Amino acid sequence: MKLGLIGLGNIGQHFANRLLAAGYELVVHDRSEAAQQRIVARGAKGAESVEALAEQSPIVLLCLPMPAVVAEVGERLAKAKGVRILVDLSTTGPSVTKAVDALMVQQGIAMIGAPVSGGTVAAEKGTLAVMAAGPKDAFDEVEPALRVIGKNVFYLGSDPSLGQTTKIINNTLYATSMIASCEALVYGVKAGLDPKTLLD
To answer: CA-to-CA distance for 13 and 24, rounded, in angstroms?
Structure first.
């Protein structure tokens, strides 16, 4: 399978390395020339632009840092030729996914919203959780690649924004449990407990 990957930062670089190691033919693009060249040196083919990558990649993966960047790249991909499936691995929120998907639908491109959870260490080890949603046939086609980058891959339904909704729920539970844990530690220390022992 030939894949395009846009975004080679702290997490995207690990996606690239794992996909290359798994034998995928990979075309990559990043605004940082240095980041792109690091992956090209490992066997990927570099693309000068989003549009150039799209022309060579029927399936494009995004791993981008901000919702506005995902929206911009999505607009450019919608105008490009060659893409059949777009997989957004970024964390953007449901509204951005809905907006990008609307552009993709107009061009006959299937979109999979698939944010991940686990951080850079899990990205390097391939143990991320992947929260994927979108047309089932498109998901089935890209699932093997998703299982290269993640250990726990969940299909959540045909609406591409459901992955982002799940990521918001996941982050909310994480944040509230962290706040509760911190409050409990403060309570214990104020009561006279040793903080390290209590944490352990």
So the answer is: 14
